[in-house]
Amino acid sequence: MTVTPDMILAALHQKLEETFPGEPVYDNFTPQEFQRPSNLLELTDLDPQSLGMAAVSLRYQYKITTFVETDEVHASHLPTLDIRGMMILGMLGSGYVKVGERALKVAACWA
């Protein structure tokens, strides 16, 4: 089975929906009037060290940005952002992401 970057994006999208039920997950861009709380999921990079390797060794980098409600001066509540960041790290804590019949290794994760 061939795994594409879009399939990985879809699997991560689903994990975010499960972690934050009822909240929007935006793929690759946020609309001008996006809803908060929500998450943005983006494919940001193909690890240059994986170029020239066999297809099973390609490493893609995805970025998840989490948004919370803001106050009257448009500042986010940092403790809430911290909790959401920990929830996202926990979502990937198994060390893999299931994509179809494959379990792709999470090579690194940081907040």
Structure description:
With 111 residues, the chain is of the alpha+beta class. 26% of the residues lie in helices and 25% in strands. The protein contains 2 helices and 5 strands. The chain has helices at 5-19, 78-91, and strands at 25-27, 38-46, 60-67, 96-99, 102-105. The strands form 2 sheets. A 3-stranded mixed β-sheet has the order 1-2-3. Strand 4 and strand 5 form a beta hairpin. It starts with a helix and ends in a 6-residue tail after the last strand. The mean pLDDT is 89.
Which descriptors apply to this entry?
111 residues, alpha+beta, 3-stranded mixed sheet, two-stranded antiparallel sheet, 2 helices, 25% strand, elongated
Write the layout of secondary structure elements.
Elements: H1 5-19, E1 25-27, E2 38-46, E3 60-67, H2 78-91, E4 96-99, E5 102-105
Parallel strand pairs: 1-2
Antiparallel strand pairs: 2-3, 4-5
In short:
The protein is of the alpha+beta class and 111 residues long. Helix content is 26%, strand content 25%. The mean pLDDT is 89.
